[in-house]
Write a structure and sequence with these properties.
232 residues, mainly alpha, Helix Hairpins, 5 helices, 3 strands
């Protein structure tokens, strides 16, 4: 086989290796994080905290209201028990009961507001939980697919690397060195196929002498892009 065609095959292998490695990096990166999932998780965390805070405030108000009712009931029982005879003490008890009544009315208003907040927060938390479950289920399906692709890519890359080694071993060292040097300088593309006398890498016409030499397997370079010419 024309040694330049062997170089072209090596380049095609290198291009596939590069493409597979790039995709493998993308797959690995995709498995590390999912912005949509993180956003939904943050939403659920926030809704859960808001609902929990509303419930806590509701319980605190209900407890305070229960204590107030107990105290008000005891004061009322004492007022009407007939055991208190002192007018000033009776007046104080009446004033205390009225004050407790006003405070009870305030607590009821506060409790009503908090109960409404809690209801809204609960609805939001349920919606956020449902959204999180849906996104997590979708992400798990995607993660399984990505994991399978990762295994396939890794297997393919290993096979290509072994293939490349065999291709490189079959080449003359000087020719391989020229290929590697050109590849490193030309963005990973060392070979320039020639069709109808035109360099397919840069579009410049190639002299007939270079075309003839390349057809015979001699190393010639494009005068424009300096890549190694190979006749298809």
């Amino acid at each position: 086989m024309n040694p330049l065609h062997q170089l072209l095959q090596l380049q095609r292998t290198d291009e596939e290796i590069q493409a597979k490695k790039q995709r493998l990096r993308e797959v690995l990166l995709a498995q590390k994080g999912n912005e949509t999932l993180e956003q939904v998780r943050r939403r659920r965390q926030g809704s859960e905290e808001t609902f929990r805070d509303a419930q806590s405030r509701q319980k605190a108000l209900e407890f305070e209201l229960a204590q107030l009712d107990d105290k008000r009931g005891r004061s009322s029982d004492r007022l009407y028990s007939g055991k208190v005879k002192n007018p000033k003490e009776l007046a104080d008890l009446q004033q205390e009961i009225e004050s407790l009544g006003r405070r009870r009315s305030e607590l009821e208003d506060e409790l009503l507001d908090v109960m409404m907040e809690s209801e809204v927060a609960q609805q939001e938390d349920e919606e956020a939980r449902a959204a999180l479950q849906e996104v997590e289920a979708g992400w798990e399906e995607k993660r399984v697919v990505l994991s399978a692709e990762q295994d396939e890519l890794a297997t393919r890359v290993n096979a290509l690397l072994a293939k490349r080694q065999k291709q490189a071993d079959a080449l003359e060292p000087k020719l391989l060195a020229a290929y590697e040097s050109t590849r490193s300088k030309r963005g990973g593309v060392a070979m320039a196929p020639v069709q109808s006398g035109m360099c397919q890498a840069c579009g410049v016409r190639v002299s007939s002498n270079k075309v003839s030499a390349a057809q015979n397997g001699d190393l010639r370079r494009c005068g424009s892009c300096d890549r190694i010419l190979v006749i298809l």
